[in-house]
Amino acid sequence: MSYTAWILLAASLVGVSCGLVGVLLILRRMAMMADAISHTVLLGIVVAYLVTLQLSGIHMFIGAVVAGLLTAVLVQWFHQLGVQQEASIGIVFTTLFAIGVILIATKAGNAHLDVQHSLMGEITFIPWNKVLLPLVGEVPKAVVSLVIVLIVILTVLLLFYKEWKLTSFDAVFAASIGIPVTLMHYVFMSLVSITSVAAFDAVGAILVIAMLITPASAAYLWTDKLSIMLVLSSIFGIISAFSGYYMAVLLDTSISGAMALATGIIFLISFIGAPRHGVIAKHRRGHAKSTATIN
Amino acid sequence: MNFLSYNAQWVLLSTLLLGMAAGVVGVLSYWKRQSLMSDTLSHAALPGVVLGFIAVGTKQLPAMLIGAAISALIGAWLVLWIRSSSRVKEDAAMGIVLSVFFGLGIMLLTYANRMPGGGQSGLDNFIFGQAASMVRSDVMLLTILAISVIFLVYLFFKEWKLALFDPSYAQGLGLSVKSMNILYTSLLVLVIVIGIQAVGVILIAALMIIPAVSARYWTDSFGRMLVLSAIFGGGAGVCGTLLSTLGKGWPTGPFIVVAAAAMFVISLLLGTSKGLLVILYQRKRAQLKRQNTILAEQAVEGGRG
Fold first, then answer.
1. Which of A31, A142, A218, B157 has CB atoms 3.0–4.6 Å from B91's, for a disulfide?
2. What is the pLDDT of residue B79?
3. ipTM surpassing 0.90, yes or no?
4. Which CATH number characterizes residue B161's domain?
5. Measured between CB atoms, does B248 come within 8 Å of chain A?
């Protein structure tokens, strides 16, 4: 496969993984939790690096999942101690992220790990770093880990589809019929963490947030059905990956930045033009029955 | 060690005032339950900073700050618009604005760094903050802005209190909630604009969230909370700046955040109003009291029997 094809494949894999996880994030109203976790995985990666002195896949994943769960647990704990949920998220992730940045600046700073990279990713380097796999041939490492993460996400999502649906739409009811809501919450946080770290390496922390939240929010404006929303969100993720890449090549600028912008454009189109929940549709309906209030 | 040089003293003064300004505005955000809005708006400021640079062509702080203010305000307006006219919730709206604006900012940054003189302009410092990169005129400007933020909060103290805690009564008195909201958003944007050079767009939100929450552990009064939050914020600003001068090229922002976080942990444990130790002590005392009453009752029962 050509250089461009690998980049597009990696970015599309990020789009699909994030698109799927993002839908649950939106429905569970945990968008800012994703913002938090995508920042704190940095600390996990740095600590894993400092302990093992290598940047290999599995260490980074373990570090990131621990950091992600630590974020979720700390946010929950401070919240129980009376800190507002929002403030609690704000305290935890900025602090953990700051510690991560300090560790990089003072200890771990080298060619493999720098702050710039972690924020924006280096998608252009992905095709260079290959491993030899049986049957398939040479495949970029990042693509391998993204495929594994996508398989994990799909498995967890499809195996417990009904449970995810119930806990996302009506947690109280789900708890009342015996679904372990708390366990599912932490499983979900782990999913967000592994998605973040896989995508993090490819596209950086900021694009992870864009890919997690924006395509799913756009899909939320088109449909009420969970299954369709999952499919749409993934498709939006892939479209953002492709259009972002070509926009970046055309303007000779940051690829991950352009992909984030592309998700924003898709959201804007949905926000204005979506059939039932778009601004135009609402405006029309508002004219049709002037007395009725929608929302 | 040259951190007490003449220039460094000015830098310290400006981070002190920045921390204080962020601290007082943070209290307003805390009671408006909008802590993460500051995070969103600070990320949203990045494209404006870079556009300000591109428009002028050299690193002129005023142009970049005006750019930052405009793009943060557009971000604020977009969050409001998305939330009010679609089914997308506020947190998702904030995430969208935050990441898309930041993405745009990075695109522009890549472009600006290729411009003649762009690579050396230190634009990257706006992401994590580099207090030492400030020159005298920057410090002057930021100091004046920070003082005016603190003064505006002080001046409208009564109005804030009413608008935050009793909005319906405030409206009855003829206080326009809408204009208070506009003033609040302007203050928020001002603090972000002041903070981006020293703390950076990613972490400036921490300086508005952490001191306010820490102050909450020491007092229930709005006024005292403002003062304490200003002290915590200012303290974090100074400590963080001093710490970051210990190493060459260390970013300032993360150290300021860690200093603030240390104050939070202390407040969480020792705070006299809601601190863990106080709560533990009260619980123990209540338990002891209950045990004593039970013992006394048993004694009375025993005496009867």
1. A31
2. 93
3. no
4. 1.10.3470.10
5. no
Say how many domains are in chain A. Answer: 1
Q: Is residue B247 part of a domain?
A: no
User: What is the identity of the amino acid at B132?
Assistant: A
Closest CA of chain A from B128, distance in Å: 9
Indicate whether A241 belongs to any domain.
no
**Chain segment B85-104, per-residue pLDDT in tens:** 888 888 899 999 999 999 99
* Cβ pair B255:A98 closer than 8 A: yes
In which band, very low, low, confident or very high, does the pLDDT at A116 lie, cut at 50, 70 and 90? low
Contact map slice: A 28-87 vs B, CB within 8 A: 29-32, 34-35, 39, 78, 81-84, 86-87
For residue B256, being part of any structural domain is answered with no
CATH code of A204's domain: 1.10.3470.10
B291 inside domain:
no
User: Global pTM?
Assistant: 0.88
Inter-chain touch B100–A261, beta carbons under 8 Å: yes
Region B51-69 average pLDDT: 87
Mean pLDDT value of segment A279-291: 73
Name the residue in chain A with its Cα closest to that of B29.
Answer: A87
B107-136 pLDDT, tens digit per residue, is 998 888 887 766 556 677 787 777 777 778
Task: Measure the CA–CA gap between B82 and B85, rounded to whole angstroms.
Answer: 6
Q: Is residue A250 part of a domain?
A: no
Closest CA in chain B for residue A263: B100
Task: Categorize the per-residue pLDDT at B190 as very low, low, confident or very high, splitting at 50, 70 and 90.
Answer: very high
What residue numbers bound the domain in which B147 lies?
A: 6-209
Alpha-carbon distance B6 to nearest alpha carbon in chain A (angstroms): 26
What pLDDT is attached to residue B1? 44
Check whether B200 has a pLDDT greater than 70: yes
- Please state, in angstroms and rounded to a whole number, the distance separating the CA atoms of residues B145 and B226: 18
Chain A residues with CB under 8 Å of B87 CB are 220-221, 277, 295
What is the number of domains present in chain B? 1
Residue B58 within any structural domain of the chain:
yes
Give the pLDDT score at B72.
Answer: 94
